[in-house]
Design brief:
Layout: H1 2-14, H2 18-25, H3 41-45, H4 50-74, H5 79-94, H6 107-117, H7 119-136, H8 139-157, H9 162-178, H10 180-188
Helix pairs in contact: 1-4, 1-5, 2-4, 4-5, 4-6, 5-6, 5-9, 6-7, 6-8, 7-8, 8-9
Length: 203
């Protein structure tokens, strides 16, 4: 029962579309009409509003972190409720009911989740993300690398049982699947780099 509670609570928190809401509040409009149509921080950056993009990144990460921490408080002795919240948060971000199940790609929210599960692993993933972004200036490569680093770092650092490793691997797979269009552009050599604006969706 507590696992289901964690899953539902995580989904509700994760499905809060901060990028969409901040776009409206900041006068940008519907962020889904910009660039890739994504509600995440990278697409927000394409509007030129770096502060709003940074806030989107922080809030998307925070909702994953808070979802897991809440279940740590409510059910301190159980692994499954924490993992339910973790999975729910990332799924909620990727498929928010409020936006007809079309959300973001889950990178920031997954990093927040991993930080809550294991701070060291979370820092490793963040380091991988930043390093890849600096080296390539390709956000999708950084995001996918960070997601894949999550189960690897959790396993390498130890202290986590198999259920946590499996959950992390599943979330990493979800993040990679959410980047399937990016993967196609990467293979074609057409993936845009951070700092270059894309034309409006449909243009």
């Amino acid at each position: 029962m507590m696992t289901l509670v964690g899953l539902l609570a995580g989904y509700l928190l994760g499905s809060i579309p901060f990028g969409f809401l901040l776009g409206i509040i900041a006068g940008i409009g519907d962020i889904r009409a910009v660039g890739s149509g994504n509600i995440g921080a990278t697409n927000m950056l394409r509007t030129g509003r770096k502060g709003i993009a940074a806030l989107t990144l922080l809030l998307d990460g925070a909702k994953g972190y808070v979802a897991v921490i809440i279940m740590h408080v409510v059910a301190p002795g159980g692994v499954e409720p924490h993992l339910g919240a973790a999975i729910g948060a990332v799924v909620g971000h990727c498929f928010p009911a409020w936006l007809r199940f079309k959300g973001g790609k889950g990178v920031a929210t997954m990093l927040g989740v991993v930080l809550a599960l294991d701070a060291q692993a979370g820092l490793v993933c963040a380091g991988v993300w930043v390093t890849m972004l600096v080296l390539t200036r390709i956000s999708s490569l950084g995001g996918m690398s960070a997601a894949i680093a999550a189960p690897v770092s959790l396993w390498w650092l130890g202290g986590q049982d198999e259920r946590t490793l499996v959950a992390a691997a599943l979330l990493a797979a979800l993040v990679v699947v959410q980047h399937r269009e990016n993967i196609g552009r990467l293979r074609a050599g057409k993936e845009p780099r951070v700092g270059r604006r894309r034309p409006p969706a449909g243009a």
